[in-house]
Amino acid sequence: MQLHTAQWDAVRGWSRPLPPGDGPHTLVMAYAGSAQLDDPGPLRDVVAAYPTSCVIGCSSAGEIFGDTVSDDTLTVAVAHFGSTQITLKHERVLDPTHSHAAGLSLGKRLRSGQPELRAAFVLSDGLRVNGSELVSGLVEGTEPGVLISGGLAADGDRFRRTWVLVDGVPRSGFVTAVGLSGPDLIVGNGSRGGWDIFGPQRRITRSENNILFELDGHPALALYKRYLGDRAAGLPATGLLFPLAVRVPGAADRQVVRTILAVDEQAQSMTFAGDVPQGSLAQLMRASFDRLVDGAYDATVAARAALTTDEPTLAVAVSCVGRRLLLGGRTEDELEAVVSGLPAHAELVGFYSYGEISTTTAGACDLHNQTMTMTTIAEHN
């Protein structure tokens, strides 16, 4: 595999020219600020340079390029594979209730196009999709053992609009997935948090999919605001600093983290990026800087464990916007920890997201919030 990364910004232009190598065995990733929806000139340049390649991308809450994070830039990775087969599929999601069907269709279409599908990398609209249902559909539509990773597009801390690339154009309300297969493909994945639980454990007594109405029989939003205090005025953005740990009934080893996308004052409810099943146990979480940085390093070590070659490696980091908001000026400490955990021949790109898709420590694929999720992609000689 030949690998090239570059970044564009409005002041300097491209950090280095985009390389030649267009073709069906070329995968191009592009991560950018949500403003590219209004002025997608640099994105058009990328798409025009690789008309027959697989080009995927999404909006972000910060673009990752090596050990730095930037806003309103365009980070690009171009990977030219030798034998790996690449398939790209899109699905429109009209509203969150269509999320499972969209994931199921994507999984089936990837599988039919690649009978020996090894991995799927998924990028989704971050506001119109129920990430849990999307992932559930993807898992159902693919074969067991397929490594599924990726994330939900973001819009900084604004929560107004997100997009993914569809046929080279940034569009809202879509999910896109790239399937990878072939005997020489090497792919790894790791996801870690670094958050600590605090406060009492409460039962989710009323919820519908990803909308939480009641905890222990009390209005969920009022209870949550009580914990946030003065920060409640900044919801939903300040909710990223205090996510919920949700333990699913009947699966004691399956804990997921959920963060808020929206609040409804009239209904006293909160909408999360993924499901919050009724009957589950929930607790608030908080984190320290060092724990978050250590979690990012541990995720990288888990992802690189699959590597058995010194060939170039594409490392894709998907980290939650909540981590960035909490880390603030120390955000690049997280990325430095990631780089320190990667082999010297790896190049890192990625984005800050509204949700991360990865396998859990229990072995199942799920939607996560507030994690650093790493995917490594390489090819045997």
> Number of DSSP strands?
27
Gross morphology is globular
Question: What's the helical proportion of residues?
Answer: 10-25%
Question: What structural category do the secondary elements indicate?
Answer: alpha+beta
Query: What does the largest sheet look like?
Result: 8 strands, antiparallel
* Mean model confidence by pLDDT: 91
The rounded distance between the terminal residues' Cα atoms is 8 Å
Uncertain parts: none
Count of the separate structural domains: 2
SS field, number of helical segments: 7
Radius of gyration: 19 Å
What percentage of the residues does DSSP assign to strands (E)? Answer: 35-45%
How would you explain this protein's 3D organization?
The chain has 381 residues and is an alpha+beta fold. The chain folds into 2 domains: 2-192 and 290-379, no CATH class; 196-286, no CATH class. The chain contains 7 helices and 27 strands. It has helices at residues 41-49, 99-113, 131-141, 220-228, 289-304, 321-327, 331-341, and strands at residues 2-9, 13-14, 26-33, 54-60, 63-65, 68-70, 74-80, 85-92, 117-124, 147-152, 164-166, 169-171, 174-181, 185-192, 195-208, 211-215, 218-219, 244-247, 255-258, 260-264, 269-272, 281-287, 313-320, 346-353, 355-359, 365-368, 372-379. The strands form 5 sheets. Strands 15, 16, 17, 18, 19, 20, 21 and 22 form an 8-stranded antiparallel β-sheet that branches. Strand 1 and strand 2 form a beta hairpin. Helix 2 (99-113) runs parallel beside helix 3 (131-141) and helix 5 packs parallel to helix 7. The longest helix has 16 residues, at 289-304. The chain is globular, with a radius of gyration of 19 Å. The protein starts with a strand and ends with a strand.
